[in-house]
Amino acid sequence: MPVTSVTTDPEALTLTLVADFPVAPQRVWKAFTDPRQLERFWGPPGWPATFTAFDFAPGGVATYRMTGPRGESAGGRWEFTRIQEPTSFEVLDSFADVDGEQNPDMPASRMTFSFEETPDGSRLQSVTHFPSTEALAQLVAMGMVEGSTMAMAQLDTVLQDLREYAQGKGTRTEILSDQHVRITRLIDGPRELVWRAHHDSELMKQWLLGPDGWTMPVAEVATEVGDSYRYVWEPVGGGEGFGFEGELVHAEPGRRAVTTERMIGMDGPGTLNDLSLYEEDGATLLTLLIEYPDAATRDMILATGMTEGMETSYARLESLVLA
């Protein structure tokens, strides 16, 4: 994880984040000043940002909206006050309404981003200056420290070539918090086909099988928000099967689908599964963010060999896409 420290100073009314990267500072600068790259990490997992404006010049304005896993929306606004390319820039950072205008009911702050060379690559330092101790306390209580840390942890995938970052590493599982796990897998094929393979029941029955020795006789897919889905697996040759069911709660066709999930016939809370796809140079990075009800449930499910079973399925998926 690139973040090395996050500290608050109530006397100076600041929050300082420091992160180190194994690339030149010019590469990190580019990630923060290109809106298409910036929106890949500006926003914690499960709340990706979409920049609707980005006028990178003194006096210019950038606006964005972050969309939560259930379709919730939160807006932000930057006004660029100082730019010293390629070492630093400063913005007035505020919450924004649906039109991109500053929300006067929420505190605004001043943020500086600086980029410097280190023996191992580069260092990013972000300092947020708050107007009052109340504003600092309010935003920290809203999860600013945790959100910023998890957001910056996504920068690794942006700074490297996608194939270089993920090729040959198989399915990777990262524990982000007590409730959140992120699973990533590079699929050597276009996003359109990977999306189709997740939403065509006949294709799903060919690859979404977990370890060898299972079949998928039922694959009822949810295609519209509010639709229910139902998947059932049975062992080859007969025997006791199992299944999952849930609801599609948010969809951005072709790139993102969020579903609830619970085991058929089991009581208690389930999970929230946030699937997103990003294509670069003909390859697709599949990211699945899973929200568990608690750490105990998370650990119990991970201990079943989930990652290994998913890798077997994703390897079939890649073969299917390549075919």
Automatic annotation (TrEMBL):
<feature type="domain" description="Activator of Hsp90 ATPase homologue 1/2-like C-terminal">
    <location>
        <begin position="24"/>
        <end position="159"/>
    </location>
</feature>
<comment type="similarity">
    <text>Belongs to the AHA1 family.</text>
</comment>
<feature type="domain" description="Activator of Hsp90 ATPase homologue 1/2-like C-terminal">
    <location>
        <begin position="190"/>
        <end position="321"/>
    </location>
</feature>
<dbReference type="InterPro" id="IPR023393">
    <property type="entry name" value="START-like_dom_sf"/>
</dbReference>
<dbReference type="Pfam" id="PF08327">
    <property type="entry name" value="AHSA1"/>
</dbReference>
<dbReference type="InterPro" id="IPR013538">
    <property type="entry name" value="ASHA1/2-like_C"/>
</dbReference>
<protein>
    <recommendedName>
        <fullName>Activator of Hsp90 ATPase homologue 1/2-like C-terminal domain-containing protein</fullName>
    </recommendedName>
</protein>
